[in-house]
Amino acid sequence: xxxxxxxxxxxxxxxxxxxxxENGLDARLFHQAFISFRKYIMESTSVSADLHIILNDICCxxxxxxxxxxxxxxxxxxxxxxxxxxxxxxxxxxxxxxISDLRLPPNWYPDARAIQRKIIFHAGPTNSGKTxxxxxxxxxxxxxxxxxxxxxxxxxxFQKSNDANVPCDLVTGExxxxxxxxxxQAPHVACTIEMCSTNTPYEVAVIDEIQMIRDPARxxxxxxxxxxxxxxxxxVCGEPAAIDLVTExxxxxxxxxxxxxxxxxxxxxxxxxxxxxxxxxxPGDCIxxxxxxxxxxxxxxxxxxxxxxxxxxxxxxxxTKLEQAKKFNDPDDPCKILVATDAIGMGLNLxxxxxxxxxxxxxxxxxxxxxxxxxxxTSQALQIAGRAGRFGSxxxxxxxxxxxxxxxxxLKGILSDAVPPVKAAGLHPTPEQIEMFAYHLPDATLSxxxxxxxxxxxxxxxxxxxxxxxxxxxxxxxxxxxLNLRSRYVFCTAPLNRKEPxxxxxxLKFARQFSRNEPLTFDWLCRHTKWPLAAPKNIKxxxxxxxxxxxxxxxxxLSYRFMDMFPDAALVRDIQKxxxxxxQIGVCNITKLIRASQSAAAAGTAEVVSEDFPLSSTQKDAxxxxxxxxxxxxxxxxxxxxxxALRRGKSSRGSRLGGRQEELKSYGxxxxxxxxxxxxxxxxxxxxxxxxxxxxxxxxxxxGFGSKRDDQHSSKETRKKRK
Length: 723
Fold this sequence. Notes:
Blueprint: H1 2-12, H2 14-22, H3 27-43, H4 49-64, H5 76-86, H6 93-99, H7 110-113, E1 118-123, H8 130-140, E2 144-148, H9 151-163, E3 168-171, E4 176-177, E5 188-192, E6 202-207, H10 219-228, E7 231-238, H11 243-253, E8 257-261, E9 268-270, E10 285-288, H12 292-304, E11 309-312, H13 318-329, E12 337-340, E13 354-357, E14 361-365, E15 371-375, H14 378-385, E16 398-402, H15 405-416, E17 425-427, H16 431-440, H17 446-456, E18 463-465, H18 469-477, H19 485-492, H20 501-515, H21 522-529, H22 539-559, H23 569-588, H24 590-602, H25 617-627, H26 631-647, H27 660-666, H28 671-678, H29 684-699, H30 708-722
Parallel strand pairs: 1-7, 1-8, 2-5, 2-6, 3-5, 6-7, 9-16, 10-12, 10-13, 11-12, 13-16, 17-18
Antiparallel strand pairs: 3-4, 14-15
Helix pairs in contact: 1-3, 3-5, 13-23, 14-15, 18-19, 20-22, 22-23, 25-26
C-alpha cells in the first residue's frame, strides 16, 4: 500500500511530468508509460536490486518522516528506463521529429518549385460555368492534366477531349485507357486526383472541386496536386470559400493567384411551400435522401402511385449510375422522377426541374473520425440544390423545397447562410516517411508507426493531418500476414468501404495469397466470388452484388500496383461489365426487390442493408426496427427514441418500460414520430408495422405489463367484446 501511494505521488508531481516531456513523453505517452511502470512494480515477484533499495528508502523515509532517506523523484531514472523499453522511439526522438515535421509541404515538390507557375482560381456556385472555362483552356493547350474527385468526372473529361479531337488518356485507381492504339502516352490526361503525377510537366493543369482540400479523409490529395503539379498554368475550380486559403498557400510558394468570379447561369428559387405528399410530384422532380432505407421506401411509394422512378446512390457502380441518369434525362422515357442520395451533387449531368429534400439531417464523420448526425451544411445544401435547372437542360429555372413543411424554414436558413471559409488543407504521411520511421523502429507494427507519426507530427496553422482510421483498420486487419513494409502500406491504402464485411474479407484473402507469392488468377477470383452470379431476387442480394463489384474494383486497383501478382485485369474488367448489367437489372426492378425483402422479413428472415456512409448509433438502433420482430421491436424503438432524445439533451432513460405502451400508440401521430420520420430514422411503413405488432403482442399478453388484476380485467373486457 505504501509503494502504491508513493508511485501515485510520483505520477502527480509537476516536476516529473516536465522531465517526461523533455524526454519525449507527452501527456498521453507519460500516462501510458506510468500505468505500465506501476503494473511492473506492483505485479512483479521481484525487481532489480537498485530499484528495490530506492523503493525501500522512499517508503521508510515517508513512514518515519525522514525525507533524506529517499524521495519519489529518485524513481525517475527507473521510470524513464522502463518507458524506453515500451516506447523504443524515445531513444531516437530527435530523428523521428525531423521525419514527421510537416510544416513545409511546398518543399516536398522540388520540380514544381523549379518553375514559376501561374495560378487561376475559377470561383462560383454550381452551374456557373467555372469548370467549363477551365476545360476550354485545357483543350486548347499543347498538354494538360485534369484532376477530379470522381471517376465519373474524369471519364466525362476523357470523353469530351477525345470527341473534340484532343487525344486524352484516362487514369483512375482501377483503370488505364489510352487514346492512342499503340498505348503511347497522349499529351492530355484526365484522372482522379489521387492518381495525378507530380513529376510529369504539363502546359495546363485543372484541379476541380478545390474546396475538398478540407476533406477529413481525402483533403491531402488536393494539397498534393495544388503544391506539386508541374504545370505552367494551374486552373483551380471551386467554391469562393477556398479563395483565401489557396491564396495563402500560394504565398508560401511565391506564386500569385488570379481570381475569376462566376455567377449562376440560371435562376434558382427556394419555394414557399413543401411537397408534403408524393401525390404532388411533377416530371423532373428529384427527391434527395440521405440513407438507402429512405431510397427504398420512397421509390416504392412512388411506384405504388403508378409512376416510374430512377434511383442513384453512392455504392452503385458508375455504369449503373450513368444508365439511371440517362433513363431519367431521356424525354422519351416514361421515367420522370429521380430518387437519389447526395451522390448527385457532382459527377452526373441531370435534367432536374425541382430538388426536394426528404430530410435535412445527414450522418457525417468529423475530423477526429467520430460519427455524428447533424443538419447538412450550407456547402452541401448549395451543391445539391444547384443541380436543379442546369444550364443547357430542358428546364431553364431551378426550384428547391423540402418534403416536410417543418423543414422548409430551416432549409431556407441554411441556403441563405454564407459558406464558412476553408481554413486548412489536409496532409497524409508518405510511404517514404513511414519507411524512415520503420528503420528507427523495426519492431513496431504499421498501425503503431502511423500512431507515433501522427502524435509527433508538427503542422502549421494552414494544414491538418487527415483522418487515418481506415488506414489503421486495414493495417490491424492484415498485421498477422507476413508482408514487406511497402506492400503492406499499399494494401492499407486500398480504396474500400470497411463497413462491407465481404470486401474486407476478400482483401484479407488477397493479402494472404500475395504473401505466399501465389498469383491471384481469374479462376481464383471467380471461385471466391462464386461467379457467375444471377440477377438479385431481393435487396440483400442486390447489396451483395454491389459488394462483389467493389471486390472487382479492388482487384483492378491492386493489378496496377502488383501486375505480376494480379495478372488477369482484362478478364476481370470484362466480368465487371457483365456484373454492372446485372446490377442495373436489379435497380430497375428495385420495388420488386423491396417487396421480396419485406416478404422474407415477414417470414422471419432479417435483411441486412449496407449504408453508403458511417452510421450513428441512433440510425443503427432505428434500422433494427425494420429487421427485428416481436418484443425486440418495441424495445429497439425505445432505444432509438432515447438516442434521439439524448442527442437533443433530453434523456428518456428514466421512463419505465410499462410507460412505453402509450408512447408507441402515439408515435404514428405525435411530433416525435414526425421528427424521426423527417430525419430519416423511421419510415411510415415501419411505424405502421410496429404499431400492428405491439397491438398483437399486447393482445397476446406477451409483455406482461400491469398486474394480474389488470390482466383479469382485460380478459373480462375481451370476453364482453367477443359476446
